Recover the amino acids of this structure.
């Protein structure tokens, strides 16, 4: 029989603010995933993130996100357990590959393995519930949840992009292209520079752009390297910022649908877009004429994923979180940020004004998460409020003042850069004040001569 004292203790624990917060977050997340599942089937006729995740227990998945998630999960394991987990994942994948080969099952290109990583993560979730207790159970469940969240975040993003293409038949690229005159049309300039570098520069930037998640996992693994020893997660790390950026960014896509200069003003890319949907075939060699912008129709396939540039936001997050690492990690974070900015512009995926909005977006989210970690105070509230205000002002300006921005670039260009610089300065200044200060070393008093 259960004692009344135990029941009261359990009930009191669930009434704690932190427990209530996590229950609320869980319920909201579940409702959000169910909504995306319904939307994916209604608008695209395809399974949503929940169904896709369940299918990957058996069917061939994309291996990268699953193994990245397993790597994050393993931060809570000992080295011996890590080798066992990696070996088990590889062994399970070998069995799956052999079975698919034996039955001649068709698999999508690049989806040969990855089930093993998912099975290992689910297995450790069972181990945490059945074989661990107390703090050990909590830490292991947090690690498994972190790995699965990384995988679910990728699938949720894919569903969001499908919804943007199906529900936003018109795009606002002419508005951003016109406003981009204030910055000197940087995408057109970067596109010509990238063409001049030849295949070497193109392949390098393409690798950086495509492997942004790998860089994030490397920085996150460094930040979480002591979880297995300390048996606790740091209060703030890169994965939190990454997930929040990926969650909130697509909501702005719905408000400001944009496909990008290579699709709206260029040849598009294989499989999506193209000249038949473009406003004109101008990118990157012909400067865009200044004309009154208006929404234009576009296909139902190409994601409206430009405003803000989430690749820029994620690269900024990687840069910020690599600052406290060793020198090689700091250099890598700086390189990844610069190369990502060059790739987003040079490949024609974004306009210059997208990048400005992406930086402000990332710094505002990072400031909010750090304020939540340390406790909200006046400086944190002011910084987040200022970032939100600047971001909203940018969106309003791009939508309703593009002609003025194009006609007066010497005024609006510096204003855009000033707004961006002010957010960066405010973030750096405020977070430096938040940094813990080392206690001053107490000096020993000088010995005074004594009378004999």
């Amino acid at each position: 029989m259960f004692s009344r004292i135990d029941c009261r203790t359990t009930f009191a624990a669930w009434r704690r603010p932190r427990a209530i917060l996590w229950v609320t977050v869980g319920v909201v997340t579940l409702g959000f995933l169910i909504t995306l599942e319904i939307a994916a089937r209604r608008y695209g006729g395809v399974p949503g993130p929940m169904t896709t995740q369940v299918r990957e227990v058996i069917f061939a998945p994309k291996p990268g996100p699953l193994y990245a998630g397993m790597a994050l999960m393993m931060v809570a394991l000992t080295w011996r357990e890590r080798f066992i987990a990696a070996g088990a994942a590889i062994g399970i994948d070998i069995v799956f590959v052999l079975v698919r080969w034996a039955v001649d099952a068709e698999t999508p290109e690049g989806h040969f393995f990855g089930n093993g990583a998912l099975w290992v993560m689910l297995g450790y979730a069972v181990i945490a519930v059945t074989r661990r207790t107390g703090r050990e159970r909590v830490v292991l469940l947090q690690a498994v949840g972190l790995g699965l969240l990384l995988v679910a975040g990728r699938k949720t993003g894919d569903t969001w992009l499908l919804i943007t293409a199906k529900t936003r038949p018109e795009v606002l690229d002419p508005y951003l292209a016109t406003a981009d005159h204030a910055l000197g049309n940087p995408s057109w300039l970067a596109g010509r520079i990238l063409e001049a570098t030849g295949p070497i520069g193109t392949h390098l930037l393409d690798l950086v752009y495509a492997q942004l998640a790998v860089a994030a996992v490397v920085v996150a693994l460094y930040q979480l390297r002591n979880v297995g020893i300390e048996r606790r997660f740091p209060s703030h790390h890169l994965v939190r910022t990454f997930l929040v950026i990926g969650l909130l960014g697509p909501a702005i896509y719905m408000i400001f649908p944009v496909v990008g200069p290579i699709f709206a003003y260029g040849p598009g890319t294989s499989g999506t877009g193209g000249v038949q949907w473009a406003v004109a075939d101008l990118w990157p060699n012909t400067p865009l004429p200044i004309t009154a912008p208006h929404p234009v129709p576009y296909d139902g396939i190409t994601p409206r994923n430009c405003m803000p540039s989430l690749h820029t936001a994620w690269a900024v997050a990687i840069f910020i979180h690599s600052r406290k690492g060793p020198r090689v990690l700091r250099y890598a974070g700086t390189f990844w940020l610069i190369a990502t900015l060059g790739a987003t512009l040079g490949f024609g995926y974004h306009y210059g004004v997208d990048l400005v909005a992406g930086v402000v977006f990332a710094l505002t989210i990072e400031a909010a998460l750090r304020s939540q970690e340390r406790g909200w105070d006046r400086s944190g509230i002011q910084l987040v409020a200022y970032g939100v205000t600047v971001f909203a002002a940018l969106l309003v300006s791009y939508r309703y003042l593009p002609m003025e921005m194009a006609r007066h670039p010497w005024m609006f260009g510096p204003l855009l850069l000033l707004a961006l610089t002010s957010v960066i300065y405010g973030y750096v200044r405020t977070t430096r004040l938040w940094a813990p200060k080392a206690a001053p070393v107490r000096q020993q008093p000088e010995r005074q001569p004594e009378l004999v």
